[in-house]
Amino acid sequence: MTDLHAQILIVDDEPDHAEVMAESLRRQGHVCTIVDGFESARDELTMGSFDVVVTDMVMEEERSGLEVLEFTKAHQDDAATIVVTAHGDIPTAKSALQGGAYDFIEKPLDLDVFRNLVNRAAETVMLRQQNESLQGQVDSAFGFEGIIGDSPGIRKVIELIRQVAPSNLPVLITGESGTGKELVAAAVHKQSKRAKKKYVAFNCAGQSESLLEDQLFGHVRGAFTGADRDREGVFEYANGGTLFLDEIGDMPLTMQAKLLRVLETGDVVRLGQNSDRSTDVRFVSATNQDLKARCESGEFREDLYFRINGAELNIPPLRQRREDIPLLVNHALGRYAADMDCARPTMSEPAMLRLVAYDWPGNVRELLNVVQRMAVMMNGDTIEISQVPDEIRSSETDDSYEVGSLAGIGLDKLEKEAIRQTLAMTGGNREQTSNLLGIGERTLYRKLKEYGIK
Length: 454
Hints:
The chain is of the alpha/beta class. It has helices spanning 15-26, 38-47, 65-75, 90-98, 111-142, 152-164, 181-190, 209-217, 234-237, 253-265, 291-296, 302-308, 325-340, 349-357, 363-377, 390-393, 411-425, 430-437, 441-451; strands at residues 7-11, 31-35, 52-56, 80-85, 103-106, 171-174, 199-203, 218-219, 231-232, 242-246, 267-268, 277-278, 282-287, 311-314, 346-347, 382-383. It folds into three domains: 7-138, Rossmann fold; 152-316, Rossmann fold (3-Layer(aba) Sandwich); 319-451, Helicase, Ruva Protein, domain 3 (Orthogonal Bundle). The two termini are 27 Å apart. 33% of the residues are buried.
């Protein structure tokens, strides 16, 4: 008895023969659809989604099983096709193999051989689908400079990084605190032509004006009390590489003017010195503030804003990319296991759903901290819903996923997004996905094909 529950299309113009094949497969848990010729098969292959197609080679219609094979290959290339043939049609059956069929079987059928052949075909298809799904998750989650996520927002950020990194355009990274702006800045450097040079990160927040100027531009001996030796600033230290200034929106206005001059000329003047020192850096900055609004209020120089915003990379908050949460959770659990040299913990489905439902005001930083805390405090090897922190477990966000943002969105887009996010939440498990969405597995398969979701 197989554990597979494959969707199988049987194309045969002999009803009794088709029913015998279907019944032998249904006993093993497969879902079978029977049609009597090419026209009906074409409709099913257009509207539905199948793992295996079993077609008779010769039927009364002018169009043969080879045309079913060709249509399947053109419209459902992931499906495996098995051709049923009479003994005298072996050469034609072999040509079907050359045309992409999985295998062929001769009449009269040995049902045990037939079932085993279909099971092997279904296993091959499903294993390939699982590998593609896992590889897609690995590539998305860990394949690009450690940036974790496969949501449209994160894919857009990665695409923009690839576009702007090879140039010398200044990059402004925007987003709420905890979204991963530092990681994106490092990715820009690693993907740039300066990747083998220095990458220097400096946070402008909480710095007095005098200390900030010293940190950025450096000083010479005797510039102020305690300056007993020359010291280069971060611009000189990063020369030839990339300089990342975080929280640039917190910089005082007078320092903004000095920074603008350096960005325009490339020359820095150390405190206590009159002569310039030439520098060459790729400038990347980040802020969690609305710089346009700060320009309008006079708190940020508009000319500096235009100077640093050669290309803007906006990182969406975690509540707008909930489908990335399972990937982030699994990453955090894997990191915990590596740090503690222990088996990787698992997250129960109720606990995962609770984490997905929460709004995460602290974004990715908060999520990773919470997951690590739960892993430390868990009993056994599974994190249960009872171990989710009270403030997250009791929050009332289950039915309020950015409700206002849904207005005006077509129902087909909402349905597609619901399916995609639920698949991500369940790690690609179609049975769990269909149960959570309240639809049958066959309907889910058809929707996956209809929307082009893998």
